[in-house]
Amino acid sequence: MKPMGPIPPGFIAAPDGSLAIGGRSAVELAREGTPLFVYDSALIAAKIDRFRAAMPPHVALHYAVKANPYAPLLTWLASKLDGFDLASAGELEKVASLGLPVSFAGPGKRDAELEAALHAGVTINLESEREAARALDIAERLGIAPKFAVRVNPPFALKGAGMRMGGLGTPFGVDADRAPTLVRLLLDSGADWRGLHVYAGSQSLNATAIIDLQRETLMLADRIAAEVGAGPPTVNLGGGFGIPHFAADRPLDLERVGEALGKELESRPKGTEYAVELGRWLVGEAGVYLTRVIDRKASGGRTFLVTDGGLHHMLAASGNFGQLLRRNYPIANATRFDEAPVEEVTVTGCLCTPLDLLGDEVMLPATEVGDLIAIFCAGAYGLTASPQGFLSQPVAREMLV
Amino acid sequence: MKPMGPIPPGFIAAPDGSLAIGGRSAVELAREGTPLFVYDSALIAAKIDRFRAAMPPHVALHYAVKANPYAPLLTWLASKLDGFDLASAGELEKVASLGLPVSFAGPGKRDAELEAALHAGVTINLESEREAARALDIAERLGIAPKFAVRVNPPFALKGAGMRMGGLGTPFGVDADRAPTLVRLLLDSGADWRGLHVYAGSQSLNATAIIDLQRETLMLADRIAAEVGAGPPTVNLGGGFGIPHFAADRPLDLERVGEALGKELESRPKGTEYAVELGRWLVGEAGVYLTRVIDRKASGGRTFLVTDGGLHHMLAASGNFGQLLRRNYPIANATRFDEAPVEEVTVTGCLCTPLDLLGDEVMLPATEVGDLIAIFCAGAYGLTASPQGFLSQPVAREMLV
């Protein structure tokens, strides 16, 4: 037996014994076809409420669209959040009509993307001096007064993060020591300087590391402001708030983070808005991937459950997306969610490759062909972060409940 | 500086100094837009010729469609090969009209897929007793005389393979000791038993390992035939022929494999057809991924080239698809293919994630914004094995020249 990650809070059995998602039976939800992603809006709403309660009142909550760009989800989020943070013009198309403030980061913005962003009145987070020059040229050619923020590559990183994005040479942002010069250039050009953006890592469960990072980020913004001689209208503190995926993971103590940030901001002058940009933390635990058992077979003394899903929809759960070691995501028999685990099985997808492993030697209830398997933590970096065209398999359905 | 894999043979500079692909300048090929996959049919034809010359004359050459299902490529291949091996009903749709014999393997075939395969007269490689029972039921219901082969999970593996698929419990095929019983059941049911399929691993560069594997596979087929009391009409020996991706890789000595297989087959009775099923070896080295430099920036003392491509098209080159360690694929400046490398750069994609690394501290000619970067070994497990929807980026173009 190998361990699996913890099933996120909020999932209970429906009256029919199956997994309930948003108060509905997984068996009912899957009736029109599997594989299927179901996103539970009540669980996302609870996360948003928790953020609002824990964080200082003037900290804006932005959604990182790349975590999950499912259109009904974006529409739903638009009424609850303070902004969308984008990483492509494709994402801009998806949120342009939703009415929220938008900012656009990303190291390789094409000219056409800068144009689209300028036309849409979006704040462009500039990633380099050269990108700044291009964006200024395009704005001038279009006759548009541009809104620019400067993305800063900080000289520190989010310690112990799943993904480090600062403290080293990176393609993201302008190195901190060059940021004041770029800000001055923008101000001198007459652009609307919207402030600073610092994103130093993601997927951390360590409140102390995030508290340190936010303090360092604020001090960096102070130093840049002092050098520039002007305070930034906004400081986007990035994100980095993780969720538990694996057996040893413990949830982030968000309240500690909020309390510490409150103290940091107390002593700072008014006039700057602060934002936190979250994707995975907001929606990751609210999503469930449901796939159906097609075959149950014995081989080499082990029992295999072969499902109609796979890494073409949930690459990260297969251990093949940025992980050094494969570990089991939380997984359950969604048809028999109220039954105790009694057998060790290995759950695979339907792809003809040994990479397509969804649950390696996990304990499940006695499982039959036709049962549904649920993989949790599927709300972020699931479908769009997976090779959907691989082996020419059918597309997965998505549903917001 | 970190090493990169070897540029596959056959790539030279065009008269304009750029990379020539199929005799055409990469600069010209990319004029209508990047990112772009270009597949060179002459290089594939040379591989097919080499296979035919090296292998015994009665060994059929099948193409594993999952390696690259680009429609013009499949059409082109259909006139040159002996069969298509499939892993889904979606792949069947892509080859159904191309006139070649087809077989269909894969551990999680849905009922609808089995139906489609039966209607199309395809040989179905059965992966378990339960799948056999389902397929027999469906064939009877449809009134179709089915063509079945049995996929056998061998008690040995391809030693040192990039991916092991035998020698352990796996979701693939029926364990060897149970195969004769399943074959007898098929024969007794009146099905057209088409033979055996053994696929024990992929991406090996070791001729000795492949020779051993093919010998063991043939001996396994002999044992099963003896137990069944009937020789298999066909034996699909699987594939496993690799290509060099990384600096230390040396090409597979195909001629040694062919010679050894010839000797093995000499002593065996006529009446059985043999097939080898190749994907990566046939098309992998013939494909080039072309992406354009959008930004050139300094950070932390390093030089970054940010391109308009990325892991959403070439996940394997980013080191995030089944690799334990990230290593550099062969990479070049395709605009200045005739110039000597003079600077150490890090080439990234345009995605807002540190995973999106295409060439880590590689030596390239002096490279400017607008130049094309070529990533080689992009003909197999490229576009369809990548998360194309990630960050809502535009689709890549594909072209067969």
Mean pLDDT of chain A: 96
Radius of gyration of chain A in whole Å, from Cα?
Answer: 22 Å
Q: Give the overall shape of chain A.
A: elongated
Question: Roughly how many Å apart are the termini of chain A?
Answer: 33 Å
The strand count of chain A comes to: 21
Please estimate the helix content of chain A: 25-40%
The major β-sheet of chain A equals: 8 strands, mixed
Overview of the structural elements:
Two copies of one chain form a homodimer. Chain A has helices spanning 26-29, 41-54, 71-78, 89-95, 111-119, 129-142, 179-189, 207-228, 254-266, 280-283; strands spanning 20-21, 24-25, 36-39, 59-64, 83-86, 102-104, 123-126, 147-153, 163-164, 174-175, 192-197, 201-202, 234-236, 273-278, 287-299, 302-307, 331-333, 343-348, 357-364, 372-375, 397-400. The first copy, chain A, has 401 residues and is α/β, with parallel strands linked by helices. In chain A, the strands form four sheets. In chain A, strands 3, 15, 16, 17, 18, 19, 20 and 21 form an eight-stranded mixed beta sheet that branches. An eight-stranded parallel β-barrel of chain A has the order 4-5-6-7-8-11-13-14, surrounded by five helices. In chain A, helix 2 (41-54) packs parallel to helix 9 (254-266) and helix 7 packs across helix 8 (207-228). Chain A contains ten helices and 21 strands. The interface between A and B is large, with 72 and 72 residues.
